[in-house]
Every structure is written in structure tokens, then in C-alpha cells.
Amino acid sequence: MVVMRTQKEIRQRAPLWLVAVLLVSFGLMSFDARDPVSKQRVVRVWGQAAAGFFQRPLATAGGAGVGFFRRAANSWGAAEENERLKSRLAEAETELREARLAREENERLRGLLALKEEAGYGVVTASVIARDPSVWFSTVILNRGTSSGVDLNMPVVTRDGIVGRVVAVNPWTAQVMLLTDEKAAAGAVVGRLNESNALGSVRGLGRNDLLEMRYVSGLETVNVGDQVTTTGQDGIYPPGLSVGTVVEVKTGSATTPHQITVKPSARLDSLEDVAVLQYRPPQRTAPDKTLPNVGKGK
Questions:
Q1: Domain range enclosing 143
Q2: Cross-strand partners of 124
Q3: 191 within some domain
Q4: Cβ contact 276:124 at 8 Å
Q5: Which CATH number fits the domain that encloses residue 145?
Q6: pLDDT tens digits along 139-184
Q7: 0.70 surpassed by pTM
Q8: Alpha-carbon distance 166 to 152, whole Å?
Q9: Considering its fold, how many domains does the chain have in total?
Q10: How far is CA 159 from CA 54, 76, 111, 193, 214, in A?
Q11: What are the Cα distances from residue 48, in Å, to 8, 28, 41, 51?
């Protein structure tokens, strides 16, 4: 009875075993089968195809992630490099500005040293340390005083031309009234026009940083662009220094003088380094107070 049940079971399971055997045979044949073109086993080709189906989206996603992080890293590196370049550019601009200022200062100092060598009197170099707003910036303060040899009424100049004269002094500083101050009448410059040699009195207008040259005869020829220089007759400035350039002329007549406007040669609005001339005008010979034969009897 037991044997009959076993045989029955075998007969029932025989189709399953047959199918299994057929599948195994098919698998072995498929495993051993080769592609006619590539000569690779068909199983490998199918496996590669299946793997490629899953690998492509994974590779795309992985590449996108790697690309994202790579771009983020590159962006961060570019930002840092940009900041470094900006810092280096700012440093270079600062160095260039400092070099330009140093070059300009050296040129001014060389000009003052050349002036010192050319002058036949002492020269005290000084720097402008302040402007006096109480008189509308018409005076400046120098960092040199009597302890350096600066005294009242000494002329102050730059390489370009005259600046003004010392009007107050202490042991450490000096106050200079600029040439353009209209209250500098007591120190008016006697100037000479280079083209006509005509003389006139130059004084400040107190505005627009300009000067006026007065008392030039209307019969003299005066043109815009003429240079005005000192004559030394004012008892303050030595002769031959540049005063300025004629920028406007209102022609006079035989009975009225020209109205002449002069622009100063020195840059009075941006003074930094100046020279105080230890100039003393030559003593004028006093005229005899008595005439010949005066007081003598006939």
C-alpha cells in the first residue's frame, strides 16, 4: 500500500522533474551558446544588457551628484580666488597711490632743493600743517618758526612761484598770508610784464584765487598769456620770481590804466611743501637831507 502511494507520487511529480530537466538543459545550452558576431556567451550579453538597464540611471544620478558637488567645490574655490584677487588688487592700488604720492613729494622736494642751490640766501623748507578758516583760508600755518630761522615778512615760495609772506611767527610755527588775500595790500608785489616790461602793483582779489595787476598804463601792450615776475622793488620778494600769468585784460586808454587779472603760478589751493626765503632786501641809500650850499652865506 505504501509502495503504491510512492509510485503514484512519482507519476504525479514526473512532469515537474521533466520541466526542471528541460530548464536545466536549456540553461546549459544558453550558457554555452555564443553570439555569432561578438563570440561572447549569450548569457553574458543578456546579463550585461540587464545590468546596463539598471546602471544607466544609477550612473546618471551618481554623475549628477558628483557634478553638483564638484561645481559647488569649484564655485567655492572661485569665490576664494576672487577674494584673493580683489585683496591683491586693493594692495596694488594702495602701493601705486603711495608710490605716486612719494614721487610727487620727491619732485617737490627736489624743486625746493634746486631753489635753495640757486638762491643766494638761506632757504628753510617747511610743510603746510593747517589752514586758518577765520580768514576764509587766506592764510596757512607752517611747521617752522623762529627756531628754524623764519622771521616776519619773509617771502614764501614754491618751485612754481611765490605763495605769500610770513605775517606771524613763534618758535615752532609761522602764519603765511597768501598772495590772493585782499588784505595783503601792505605786501603788494611790484610785478613786471615780460613782454612789455611794464610795471604794476599786484594784489589779491580775495576771491576765485586770482590777482589783479594795477597801475599799468593803457598805452602799454598787454596780452593774455603774458608772464608777471617780481622786480624786488616791493622790499619783500627778491627779483625774478614768477607771480602768475595774465588771464584777462580790459584795455585801458591814455588816461585810464588796464584792468589786468592774473592767475598765480603757485597752486595755492593745494599747498603741501614750501620754502621760506631768508631774504633781506638791500638797504636803500638815504638821500641827503641838505642841499649843496644850503645854509652858506652868499
A1: 124-278
A2: 276
A3: yes
A4: yes
A5: 2.40.10.340
A6: 899 999 999 999 999 999 988 899 999 999 999 999 999 988 877 5
A7: no
A8: 5
A9: 1
A10: 86, 54, 5, 20, 25
A11: 44, 18, 11, 5
